[in-house]
Design brief:
Blueprint: H1 5-13, H2 21-27, H3 33-47, H4 51-66, H5 71-84, H6 94-115, H7 119-139, H8 143-151
Helix pairs in contact: 3-4, 3-7, 4-6, 6-7, 6-8
Length: 160
Amino acid sequence: MAISAVTRRRLEIQGFTGLDDACLTEAAPWLRFTPAVCAVLMGIGTGLASAPLLFALVPIALLGAVFPVHPFDIAYNYGLRRLTRTRPLPPNGVPRRFACGMAAVWLAGTASAFLGGADVAGYVLGGVLTSVAVLVSTTHFCIPSMVYRLLFRQPVPAAA
């Protein structure tokens, strides 16, 4: 089955450009892996009002911002993909890495809110962040990647 024009565009917005249909078709479901793991961990951290768990996610998100391969992508590339018999995930583009940087800051703010006793703010911040990660992991629509493109005047790839 070929990749849809909508999915291709959403992945290109995240910076996955220059990839052929075969590569994107194979990778698309697995490009949801990292955001899904993040969403689950953020959701647990938020639900438990766990500042330590949320703070523990900050360096993971920062690594995802600094390097073209997120730590959870590495787990997929060297573990799970052996079971799926797929090729390694392509490197993350700058917009997706920017999203990881935004997540790191947001996680630190959420954890700080819980640590400081501002539980309502922590739940709101964590709920919004978790929702954004769920959106990416279910639809490939990445709000922070769109923010990146707007802030840095990067054109959004045209629909096919």
